Here is the input.
Amino acid sequence: MRPGPGQVLHFSEDPTITRFVPHVAATARQPQAFVWAVDHGRAPDYWFPRQCPRAMAWTRPDTTPADRERIVGAGCGERVHAIEYGWLAAMRTVRLYAYRLPAQPFRPFGAPVAHARVATVPVVPLGPPEPVGDLFELHAEAGIQLRVLTDLWPFWGAVTASTLGFSGIRLRNAVGGGLAAPSHPR
Here is the structure.
């Protein structure tokens, strides 16, 4: 489930949205009101139930072979996503939808690397939302390793201390509940 040319995606468990209006998210670190979306490369970050804590890592040109093997694993692709066992049932049963939005009103957001696209004007979807389907199958088809861990924090600590790119979303909902390292992507 990725956007086509000239599109960005917004993932939601709500299939009834007809217009996206800029707002300040409850978890926002900035005061501006935005409509949030993602591009092709960041879409997999949202193949999860909304509140599911997830730690994600991927290889970059400057990733060391040792970090790649230690965190991603030999022969395991270029990207790994991790969740906790407590979220397995939700991963299996969530009804997640993708809204296709026109890319034109959106601009990159995030530094040093953009991890989202934001718009400051209302945006109407290009059509009805599409069911995302089986989240495990989606990861498998994309060649993204999906790990299930008892506790995300040891993995997150290793990832954030490595040369891999990373992103953590909803980590406050993970076992232990507190951030031990940055959640912003790099």
Observations:
- The radius of gyration is 16 Å.
- Residues 179-186 have pLDDT under 50 and may be disordered.
- The chain has one domain: 7-173.
